[in-house]
UniProtKB/TrEMBL annotation:
Superkingdom field: Bacteria
Organism field: Ancylobacter mangrovi
Protein name, UniProt field: C-type cytochrome, methanol metabolism-related
Limits of the Cytochrome c domain: 23-126
InterPro entries: C-typ_cyt_methanol_metab-rel, Cyt_c-like_dom, Cyt_c-like_dom_sf
Residues covered by region (Disordered): 1-32, 131-155
GO molecular function terms attached to this record: electron transfer activity; heme binding; metal ion binding
Keywords, ordered alphabetically: Heme, Iron, Metal-binding
Keyword Lyase recorded: no
Signal peptide (UniProt feature, chain positions): none
Residue stretches of biased makeup (Polar residues): 13-30
Length: 155
């Protein structure tokens, strides 16, 4: 699959730069890179794994939502990277007569925060229609230095 330009709260998802295997768009937001043969960048692949381990329980498989939490595929159509980061870090509460929606804060959880860019990149690729459901079948290799950075973040 190739990247499509769709509604995206963070703007145009096209990768314009990269550093150590992590791609950024023209605004400096984390983004995905998917080759014509379907190979996804390392961060998109890791984002799928970390999303599945930490977010799927509430937001459903592939970011499509559930009875517990909304679709993140839909939410990222309008949600910017900074808004996403703020919500995951600090949580969110939206209580009314018809609903009681509470997103817990994950700001001190290294299993989420050490991979926040990867989770965002995966969801951005899903939201933009560039990545289908399920685990990506082909992934770029782990970038040099990734393991050391991961170990340092996880403590």
């Amino acid at each position: 699959m190739t990247s499509q330009l769709c509604a995206d709260g963070s703007g145009n998802p096209a990768a314009t730069s990269s550093s150590d295997g992590e791609y950024s768009d023209s605004q400096g937001n984390p983004t995905f890179k998917i080759d014509k043969d379907g190979t996804v960048d390392w961060y998109t692949s890791v984002g799928y794994i970390r999303y599945t381990a930490n977010c799927m329980q509430c937001h459903g498989p592939d970011g499509l939502g559930s009875s517990f939490a909304p679709s993140l595929v839909d939410a990222l159509q309008n949600l910017s990277y900074s808004q996403f980061l703020d919500t995951v870090t600090n949580g969110k509460k939206n209580v009314s007569a018809s609903q009681d929606l509470v997103m817990p804060a994950f700001g001190v959880n290294p299993n989420v925060m050490c991979y926040i860019d990867a989770i965002f990149v995966y969801l951005r690729a899903r939201s933009d229609g560039a990545l289908g459901r399920g685990q990506p079948q082909k992934s770029a290799p782990r970038p040099a230095g990734y393991s050391a950075a991961e170990d340092a973040c996880m403590g």
